[in-house]
Amino acid sequence: MPEEPIDHIDFEDLNKRAISSPLVNHIYTADPSAHVFEGRIYVYPSHDIEAGIPFDDLGSHFAMEDYHVLSMDTPEGKATDHGVALHVKDVPWAKRQMWAPDAACKEGTYYLYFPAKKADNIFQIGVATSKSPSGPFIAEAEPIQGSYSIDPAVFEDEGKYYMYFGGIWGGQLQSYRNNTYSEANEEPLPNEVALGPRVALLSNDMKQFAEPVREIVINDEHGKPLLAGDNERRFFEASWMHKYNGKYYFSYSTGDTHLICYAVGDSPYGPFTYRGVILNPVVGWTSHHSIMEFQGTWYLFYHDSSLSKGVTHLRSVKATPLTHMPDGSIQTIDPYRA
Ligand code: FUB
């Protein structure tokens, strides 16, 4: 993930034009996964730090070591930082890079899902549990069997829990075909079908996959799968799922074109049809979000690098209302006013 040139940005002006402010400014936070638990909003973000690791296209400078949980009464309310919820040193299998997490609740237990690199530098996804939505969380000794890549997002539908995941480039998804890793595997050519995000039903105990991982298909308006060279629409990372009016909305980041897009389908497994852009580019290379309903209003949680004046790996989590239009489309959000 390359650093973008930032010397042309007037941050004082940009912050005046920003449609929302960071939820917290005493730490850097990113990749917000927002949920309503016990009547309160809980946000599970990455905790960005300056680890002094040089930039590269694999995102090695995203060298996060722990997670903090934030909570608030309302999306506009003051956020409480509940402190360290899980540290990499307390995860037996993980060595580095605690990237975008998510959380779920089942029968009074809270599950924190997170990707991290193992000693062999390969990402897997782990789970940790707590009796409180704010943690602290206790990690399982091993990662989820059959998991790979990054950015888990867990979605509950009719009593079943599905995990969506995957990310190309630094997220390593391009190394997998049919759920098997090989360094020889590469991103498809521009005229070939793009790699799809992955999904698997979770087991009853929420700690394993209950079925083989499936690849999700995202089609264009003609029912043809999006191509790898369609950088403005193809999946890159940051899966999220929400349900609206009986339809399944799969949203994601396009990575190198910096958009949050969405695609709509009739099943949690897809296929999904591309529908448009939810969030235009933010300051910073990455874009990552979640979508949540609170007291009848829908919200987009997202991040940008405005607080750090454009440092791509020092981001801040924000929230803004999101509008579903009568035709089922989502109104595109500009993170900064003109
Ligand atoms: O925060 C590290 C990585 O950056 C996330 O896993 C990606 O989604 C991107 O936001």
Provide a descriptive summary of the structure in words.
The chain has 338 residues and is mainly beta. It has a single domain (11-331), classed as Glycosyl hydrolase domain, family 43 (Tachylectin-2, Chain A). The protein has one helix at 11-17; strands at 28-37, 40-48, 66-72, 80-87, 102-106, 109-117, 123-130, 138-139, 153-157, 160-165, 176-177, 180-181, 198-201, 214-215, 218-219, 237-244, 247-253, 260-265, 272-279, 290-294, 297-304, 316-322. Strands 15-19-18-17-16 form a five-stranded mixed sheet, with no helix packed on it. A four-stranded antiparallel sheet has the order 1-2-3-4, with no helix packed on it. A four-stranded antiparallel sheet has the order 5-6-7-8, with no helix packed on it. A hairpin with a 2-residue loop joins strand 20 and strand 21. Bound molecules: beta-L-arabinofuranose (FUB). The site of beta-L-arabinofuranose has 13 residues, from strand 1 and strand 16.
Helix content: under 10%
How are strands sequenced across the largest beta sheet? 15-19-18-17-16
Order of helices and strands: HEEEEEEEEEEEEEEEEEEEEEE
The quaternary organization reads as single chain
Beta-strand content: 35-45%
- Distinct ligand kinds: beta-L-arabinofuranose
**Beta strand count:** 22
Give the CATH superfamily. Glycosyl hydrolase domain, family 43
At CATH level 2, the architecture is: 5 Propeller
Count structural domains: 1
If you average the pLDDT, what whole number results? 97
